[in-house]
Amino acid sequence: MRHNKKFNHLGRTYTHRKAMLSNMAISLIRHKRIATTLAKAKALRVYVEPLLTKSKEDTTNSRRVVFSYLQNKDAVTELFRDISVKIADRPGGYTRILRTGFRLGDNAEMCIIELVDYNENMLKEKTTKKSTRTRRSAKKATDEVKVEAPKTAKAPKTEAPKVEAPKAETETEDKAE
Question: pLDDT at residue 77 above 60?
């Protein structure tokens, strides 16, 4: 029985799985986004997020621990130099999995796994969403129509005397006082 055994072996031996996850983690660190199957992406998330957390503290020991998992000096250097700076204030959840559909050959569910702080498109959408708030009230809709009506009404010459008329009334009131 396999009670409480939640680890996905991905149909591979221990050494093959370890090498595959290490290579996928290196690719994710280098390219910031990779396309893979959903099962591999979920396994990679469990593998790489503790390494990203470890990279926040730039000590010799943490570099050695991360190197023991990745076995690639360039990836470790990039992780500690560039990525750790961007994720310094994030408390967790460094990766995002976006499902892309099913593979044509074997119908495996495909996805893209990416580092959250490196997707400029999603970061731009967040800022624009915050700045453009709209409400669906009838008052505001009628106010907008009222505001727009005088702007278009200023263009014809027939409306111009109406704007000047109130100014003339104020001048006559001043003279009377």
Answer: yes
Task: State the DSSP string of 5-30.
Answer: -----TTS-HHHHHHHHHHHHHHHHH
State the Cα–Cα distance between residues 96 and 42, nearest whole angstrom: 10
- CB pairs under 8 A, 24+ apart, for 16-20? 17/43
Instruction: Spell out the domain ranges in the chain.
Output: 14-119, 138-176
Three-state DSSP state, 104: coil
pLDDT band at 17 (very low <50, low <70, confident <90, very high): very high
Q: Report if pTM > 0.70.
A: no
Residue 134 DSSP one-character state: -
Asked if CATH classification 3.90.1030.10 holds for the domain at 14-119, the reply, yes or no, is: yes
What is the three-class DSSP state of 81? helix
> Going along the chain, which residue ranges are E strands?
33-37, 95-102, 109-115
User: Which residue's entry shows tokens 């396999």?
Assistant: 2
Euclidean distance between CA atoms 177 and 171, whole angstroms: 10
The residue type of 13 is T
SS3 assignment, position 105: coil
